[in-house]
Each structure stands twice: as C-alpha cells, then as structure tokens.
Specification:
This protein has 235 residues and is an alpha/beta fold. It has one domain: 3-Layer(aba) Sandwich (Rossmann fold), CATH 3.40.50. It is 32% helix and 19% strand. It has seven helices and seven strands. The chain has helices at 40-45, 48-56, 93-114, 129-140, 183-195, 213-216, 218-227, and strands at residues 11-14, 25-31, 59-63, 117-127, 147-151, 169-175, 200-205. A seven-stranded mixed sheet has the order 1-3-2-4-5-6-7, with helices on both faces. Helix 5 links the parallel strand 6 and strand 7 (200-205). The longest helix has 22 residues, at 93-114. The protein is globular.
C-alpha cells in the first residue's frame, strides 16, 4: 500500500457467475471483525456470500483492513470483553487505524477500476469490529455508499447519526444470543437514526450469535441491497 511502501496487504474478491467485464456491476464491501482477515467473512459464511453474490450479480470485495486488528479509522475503544492482543504494537493504535482505513479505500478504488463497478451502487456491510468500520466509513464518506448494513457491534453513544441521512438505506442486524455485543445498544442506535430522519431498519435474529447472526440474515441483507438501486455518481 502507498502509505507503507513495500508492504503487501491481501484482500479477497469474488466475481459472480455471469459477470461481464463490459457491464457495470454493483459491489458489496465486507468488513471483518477483530483479529480476522480478508478471508474470514468467506470462511465464516460457508459459501453463503458467494451464493448471494451469484443470485444478485454483486461483486464481493473483502479488505484486510491493514493488520486486521485496527478498526478501519474509527479509533473507537475496544470493548473490555474482547481479548487483548498478545504481541506488542509496532505503532500507535491511531496509526494502525488510519492505515486500516487507507487500506479499505485503496481496495475499493482498485476493485472499481479492475472490475468496472457501478459507482452509484456500492454497498458496505460488517460485523462486530466490522460494524464499527461500516459506521465510521459511512459518517466519513456518506457519498460513497448506496446502502449499508451493520451488525453486532460495540456501543457508540455519541455516533453522529445525522451523517447517514443521505444514504438510501441503513440496516442494523443483531443476534438474540449475542453474549458479547449488547442488543440494546444496537436498538438504541437504530432508534436514534430513525429519529434523525435516517431511512433505517432494525432486525433481530432470534437465534443468532455474535458471530453468525449476520450469516443467518445474509439473504435478506442482499435483498435489502438489491432493493436500493441508487442512480448518479456517488463516488
């Protein structure tokens, strides 16, 4: 990546069946959780991401977020319930987080150039720390996203929900059996967003855990994205 010359950061891309290089395709960016990798969403979903991509014709892109332990630029304190990293940090958390954000933006730009992505139909979703990343990128670059989905993340009491008004659809998802992230925090955030005029929905997955609620709700999430067909250049 340009900010770290000589350092290579992996990312994953899935091209749906029937993808054509000469046709502008929609794209879903998937952000993984803490201490995971670009491969983790595909592994955790067990083929469901590919099935939904094929069903709707979405290109799927999963960045690594630099080292996989930063929060995509948000600099939100890590909940104490999450395990602390064992290895000492080579740089400050703020520097790591800034690199994680830069990595995501570079991957998006590269994918858009390589696969002729429709700039009006770019979506982002993420679970746990990935939800933090979704919310941060949505507040920082609302013009980039047609719709977003955020699931089972940590509390963010002061989050500026009004920054989401220009996004055509905001979906919050939470597992009823999540013992790490609190359902009430996600419900409160969704309610604040709706009160601020954001087109937001909240869905509880009754049997969903912290790690699998988003997987259980993937068909509905991709239906949600497919129903939001933004027009005009958002990038």
């Amino acid at each position: 990546m340009p900010e770290r010359p000589g350092e290579k950061v992996p990312y994953r891309v899935y091209l749906p069946g029937g993808w054509k290089a000469d046709a502008a395709a929609p794209m879903v960016v998937v952000l993984h959780g803490y201490a995971a990798t670009a491969a983790s969403p595909f592994d955790d979903a067990g083929g469901a991401l590919q099935r939904e991509a094929d069903r709707h014709g979405f290109v799927i892109v999963a960045p690594n977020g630099y080292n996989g332990m930063a929060d995509y630029g948000a600099n939100l304190p890590l909940p104490s319930a999450l395990p602390a990293r064992a290895a000492p940090r080579a740089m400050t958390p703020q520097a790591e987080s800034a690199l994680a954000q830069a990595d995501v933006l570079h991957v998006i730009d590269r994918a858009m150039a390589d696969y002729r992505i429709n700039p009006a139909r770019v979506y982002v979703m993420g679970n746990s720390m990935g939800m933090t990343g979704v919310l941060h990128l949505a507040r920082s670059f609302p013009e980039k996203w047609c719709a977003i989905s955020a699931s089972d993340g940590p509390p963010w009491p002061g989050y500026p929900v009004e920054r989401l008004r220009s996004i055509s659809g905001v979906l919050f998802v939470h597992g009823g059996r999540d013992t790490l992230a609190r359902l009430a925090d996600t419900q409160r955030l969704a309610a604040r967003a709706r009160a601020a005029g954001v087109r937001a929905r909240m869905h509880l997955v009754p049997d969903g855990t912290h790690g699998d609620a988003w997987v259980r709700y993937l068909p509905e999430t991709f239906d949600f994205f497919a129903a939001h067909r933004c027009s005009g250049r958002r990038q």
